[in-house]
């Protein structure tokens, strides 16, 4: 009678197998962890680069348009003895730009300023700005000069997102690069409405993507006049703007003899008044680059503002301004930009207007972070944006800085 012996694995063999299996699993976990870290870092890098490129694209485009007021720039309009070559119907006294209409946000219609900057306190070159994991909202007095009403927010319903403390702000005003041919111009009078008629197809192309614009400028190569379209009517391929002036209207003054435009030469442009700043997204409590757009719809009686979130992850915007060597109102620009100043350092030898009229270049610096945590180690070297030191948090987000120098093409002497 044969006896079958039971066969199996000994305890020692089982322990050896378990150790080998554990080593293999540990190796797989390490490979997976390294792959995930590499993926998160690569994704954070690519998103940061993408957002930085988009942010710079938006800023460069609108900064280069600053001062564009038809075929003659604002610099030429404000030269000595310009003989009222720059007109705004928003003024009750067309020689006094402080008489502008528009309600609480009337400063948005100060088209005599094509560019205005606001320097965040403690963010100049050689200063240090502390970047928190979550951004901190600033108050009006955290900038120099203090923020006007058009940039202030109380955090209520309908208010734009609050600006981030330590980040600069810039306001730009210009006419759109697209325009529509004027087919008829009627001057009007204090007691009668004026009108401007344009090619409807060209106007549609000019206003594409803009909801109910109502601010425009009519210009030839001699002068420019800003106006509000009190009413808009379409007929037979033409669009007619009715220009009404008076109490309760955005247009406080009618066209005058200086606004006698020849329909064969004049064109109508959409008037843009915008502000760029880093704001706090109220839904995510994270920083983003915002564009604040100001407008008065046709038949409107006050300026309204709309905040557009352009690029998430922008933590800081730093700006330096290049000013012409000649800043006096009675002198011509030399075309030689010999300074790079913060907004609070703009030379104003003949009053607040003239200093900003002589800004011909802007240096832009951005600090951009990845939208999500990217397993990025904290930098062991200092980070600077246009000379401003940034103290960064240890939150594992990937960060990068971007800088560029932008010439304001319509402010270059001779253009």
Describe what this molecule looks like in 3D.
The chain is an alpha+beta fold. It has four helices and 19 strands. The protein has helices spanning 11-65, 74-77, 200-206, 352-357; strands at residues 86-88, 115-120, 128-130, 143-144, 169-186, 194-199, 215-219, 224-228, 231-235, 238-243, 267-281, 286-295, 304-312, 314-324, 337-341, 359-369, 383-385, 388-391, 399-407. The model has no long low-confidence stretch (mean pLDDT 87). This is Prepilin-type N-terminal cleavage/methylation domain-containing protein.
Shape: elongated
Spans of 5+ residues with little confidence (pLDDT < 50)? none
Query: How many strand elements?
Result: 19
Put simply, the count of helices is 4
Q: Determine the mean pLDDT.
A: 87
Quaternary structure classification? single chain
| Most strands sheet | 12 strands, mixed
Rg over alpha carbons: 29 Å
The portion of residues forming beta strands comes to 25-35%
- The first-to-last residue Cα distance is 115 Å
The structure class reads alpha+beta
Q: Give the helix level as a range of percent.
A: 10-25%
Order of helices and strands: HHEEEEEEHEEEEEEEEEHEEEE
Protein name: Prepilin-type N-terminal cleavage/methylation domain-containing protein
InterPro entries: N_methyl_site (IPR012902), PilW (IPR032092)
Pfam families: N_methyl, PilW
Organism: Lysobacter enzymogenes
What labels would you give this structure?
about 425 residues, 19 strands, alpha+beta, 12-stranded mixed beta sheet, 4-stranded antiparallel beta sheet
């Amino acid at each position: 009678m044969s006896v079958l012996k039971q066969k199996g694995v000994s305890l020692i063999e089982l322990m050896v197998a378990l150790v080998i299996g554990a080593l293999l699993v540990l190796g797989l976990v390490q490979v997976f962890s390294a792959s995930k870290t590499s993926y998160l870092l690569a994704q954070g890098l690519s998103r940061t680069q993408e957002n930085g490129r988009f942010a710079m694209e938006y800023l460069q485009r609108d900064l280069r348009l600053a001062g564009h007021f038809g075929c003659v720039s604002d610099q030429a309009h404000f030269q000595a003895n310009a003989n009222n070559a720059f007109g705004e119907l928003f003024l009750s006294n067309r020689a006094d730009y402080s008489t502008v209409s528009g309600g609480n946000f009337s400063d948005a219609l100060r088209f005599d300023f094509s560019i205005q900057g606001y320097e965040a306190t403690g963010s100049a070159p050689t200063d240090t700005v502390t970047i928190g994991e979550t951004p901190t909202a600033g108050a009006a007095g955290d900038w120099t000069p203090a923020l006007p009403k058009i940039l202030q927010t109380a955090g209520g319903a309908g208010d734009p997102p609050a600006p981030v403390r330590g980040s600069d702000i810039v306001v730009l005003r210009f006419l759109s690069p697209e325009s529509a041919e004027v087919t008829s111009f009627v001057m009007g009078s204090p007691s009668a409405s004026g009108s401007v008629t344009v090619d409807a197809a060209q106007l549609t192309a000019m206003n594409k993507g803009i909801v109910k614009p109502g601010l425009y400028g009519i210009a030839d190569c001699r002068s420019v006049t800003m106006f509000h379209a009190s009413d808009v009517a379409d007929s037979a391929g033409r669009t007619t703007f009715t220009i009404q002036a008076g109490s309760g209207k955005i247009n406080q003054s009618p066209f005058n003899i200086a606004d006698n435009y020849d329909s064969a030469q004049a064109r109508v442009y959409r008037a843009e008044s915008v502000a760029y700043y880093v704001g706090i997204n109220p839904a995510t409590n994270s920083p983003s680059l915002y564009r604040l757009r100001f407008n008065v719809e046709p038949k409107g009686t006050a300026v309204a503002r709309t905040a557009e979130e352009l690029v998430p992850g922008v933590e800081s915007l730093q700006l330096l301004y290049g000013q012409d060597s000649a800043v006096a109102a009675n002198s011509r620009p030399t075309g030689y930009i010999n300074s790079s100043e913060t907004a609070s350092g703009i030379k104003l030898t003949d009053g607040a207007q003239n200093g900003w009229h002589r800004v011909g270049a802007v240096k832009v610096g951005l600090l951009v972070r990845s939208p999500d945590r990217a397993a990025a180690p904290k930098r062991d070297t200092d980070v600077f944006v246009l000379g401003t030191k940034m103290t960064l948090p240890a939150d594992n987000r990937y960060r990068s800085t971007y800088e560029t120098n932008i010439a304001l093409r319509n402010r270059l002497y001779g253009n």
